[in-house]
Design goal:
Distance between the termini: 53 Å
Strand content: 15-25%
Number of domains: 2
Strand order of the largest sheet: 2-3-1-4
Shape: elongated
Largest sheet: 4 strands, antiparallel
CATH topology of the largest domain: Alpha-Beta Plaits
Helix content: 55-70%
Structural class: alpha+beta
CATH class of the largest domain: Alpha Beta
Mean pLDDT: 87
CATH architecture of the largest domain: 2-Layer Sandwich
Radius of gyration: 23 Å
Number of strands: 4
Length: 170
């Protein structure tokens, strides 16, 4: 039983590290990903040795599967908690809410806004670049002023020029 629990724990650690390493590579943090990969491989080899010595017991194979699934979940939760990088939030709201860009700017967000034509008339479109760790707070601010706004967020890959690029370089 202790072997099965060890396999679960090792696999959770290994797959969590694997998930985080993958996310770090995608986000361009190669140095951190390289360091994490060394830890990941050490954990993997220790776990592989344990599993291969105990392949005859189906409980150990089940433990491996459970640990793998739990590791994927835990790794993604850790990344969500760390909230690495930035998001671009696009907001489409009723054009009558002209005060929203200024309210967001007062909270320190960089906002670009313009009027657009929607199906039912004029709309206010805003684009806001925000640290992922502050995205929920931004969305809450938007929803208090414009609860019916249409909001889309995505992660940008590159920055060049403008207000945020100067801040990021610092």
């Amino acid at each position: 039983m202790w072997t099965a629990l060890s396999i679960v724990a090792i696999n959770i650690a290994y797959v969590s590290a694997f998930t985080l390493r993958l996310i770090l590579v995608i986000k361009g943090r190669r140095g951190a990903a390289s360091l994490l990969s060394m830890v990941e491989v050490f954990i993997y080899l220790a776990g592989l040795d344990l599993v291969l010595r105990n392949l005859s017991d189906p409980l150990h194979m089940i433990a491996y599967c459970v640990g793998f699934g739990a590791g994927v979940y835990l790794g993604s939760r850790i990344e969500e908690y760390l909230a690495l990088g930035y998001s671009v939030v696009q907001v489409i709201a009723d054009s009558m809410i002209v005060s929203l860009p200024d309210k967001l700017r007062a909270h320190g967000y960089g906002v670009t806004s313009w009027l657009a034509d929607g199906k039912d008339g004029k709309r206010l479109v805003m684009q806001v670049l925000v640290k992922r760790s502050n995205e929920k707070k931004l969305l809450d601010s938007i929803m208090t002023v414009a609860p019916r706004a249409f909001v889309i967020s995505h992660e940008p890959r590159n920055f060049r020029g403008g207000f945020w690029a100067k801040m990021i370089q610092r």
